[in-house]
Amino acid sequence: MTVTVLAPLDIPGLLRQYGLHPSKSLGQNYLQDRAALQEIVASAQLTPSDAVLEIGPGLGSLTRHLALSARTVTAVELDKLLLPALREVLAPFPNVRLIQGDILALSPAELMEHAPYLVVANIPYYITSAVIRHLLASEPRPRRAVLTVQREVGERICALPGDLSLLALSVQVFGQPEITAWIPAKAFYPPPKVGSAVVRLEVYPQPLIPGPHLDRFFQLAKAGFSQKRKTLRNALSGGLRIPPDQAAAMLHAAGIDPQRRAETLNLEEWGKLAELRPA
What gap in Å lies between CA 226 and CA 221, rounded to an integer? Predict the structure, then answer.
């Protein structure tokens, strides 16, 4: 068996060659550390028969490693300016398909012809929840997702009941997350202000909250967390634009104390709320 060792990409050199500058608004911090790249690939637990959807390949550092381990890699990049450099970097890998576009505007089902597939993504915080819901609310779902996110975001995703956030609920309704690796800021170019976490999400065959109630679940959770310091009675009243007494009655019907706060509810309790027919 031949083991291919990839030389690290010269990220600063590629940027200079193509006249590129990392965009802060797009969260462009390019991962270049070989050990960190290998940690992500190991977290994905790839086999030679796997199809991978990579979101945000950047300059292709991780894409190359994925291509060595998976059958196919479909890499979706938002920034058109990166495409010439990406095509050069990925030219030696015929099993990589590069697509320019916004993942939130693309259908995972159309991108990935072969199910089940895996998702690998290095995503900025501000679209983390939206990307996860877009990918996991679609059919077919990936069987696993490996997300590189800011350290604090990774910790929030994996929070336990009693300290849940809207982001944690948005992820944990679809699968079981765990942090598999920590990546220091110096592993990126340019280095971000904080380190990152690699989160592996083992996706459930079906969401913990049934499909017909899923939109209602997200509506309620968003309202509940819209004013975190308020009781659920008042937060739901404001978020759903209903009278406080109506919000309290809804909570009582689900067996939930209206004086509790959103972060104390577990997924089962949010599910009971979502199952109630809205007034």
Answer: 8
Check whether residue 154 and residue 252 sit in a common domain: no
Q: In the prediction, which pLDDT does 259 show?
A: 97
- 83 with 100, same domain: the answer is yes
* 94 plus 181 within the same structural domain: yes
Coil vs helix vs strand at 186? helix
pLDDT tier for residue 7 given thresholds of 50, 70 and 90: confident
Strands 144-150 and 118-122: parallel
Residue 123's pLDDT is: 84
Q: How many domains does the chain have?
A: 2
The pLDDT confidence band at residue 140, using thresholds 50, 70 and 90, is: confident
Residue 248 domain boundaries: 211-275
Residue 5 falls inside a structural domain: no
Q: What is the pLDDT of residue 279?
A: 54
Instruction: Please provide the DSSP assignment of 201-240 as one string.
Output: EEE-SS-SS-HHHHHHHHHHHHHHHTTTTS-HHHHHHHHH
**Is the N-terminal amide bond of 207 cis, ω within 30° of 0?**
no
CB atoms within 10 A of CB 70: 23
pTM of the model: 0.92
In the numeric block, which tokens belong to residue 174? 């679809």
Q: How many CB atoms lie within 10 A of CB 248?
A: 20
Q: Same domain for 241 and 141?
A: no
- Check if the beta carbon of residue 136 is closer than 8 Å to that of residue 142: yes
